[in-house]
Write a sequence for this structure.
């Protein structure tokens, strides 16, 4: 009887809310951004805010860091660790964080 309660009461709640909750979670690799790029840009930080920026812009800039056409200190090394396929979901998630 307890198993039936789970199936009829709890399972629809999980099915209903599971994807919504999962959609708000950052994709793998996105946590590496928050170490330097704050969600709310402090007034004195030289590191730009990337949350809410255009996803295509993020992918383009990361590709430029990766191939060395955009000078950097740390970002070139970080960008080399991500393929375009890995960057696209990260950039889309960052764009959605407005």
């Amino acid at each position: 009887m307890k198993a039936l309660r789970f199936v009829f009461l709890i399972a629809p709640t999980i099915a209903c809310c599971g994807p919504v909750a999962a959609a708000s979670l950052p994709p793998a690799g996105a946590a590496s951004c928050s170490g330097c790029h704050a969600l709310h840009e402090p007034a004195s930080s030289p590191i730009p805010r990337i949350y809410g920026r255009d996803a295509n812009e993020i992918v383009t800039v990361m590709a430029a860091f990766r191939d060395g056409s955009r000078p950097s200190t740390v970002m070139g090394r970080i960008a080399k660790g991500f393929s375009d396929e890995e960057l696209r979901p990260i950039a889309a998630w960052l764009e959605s964080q407005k």
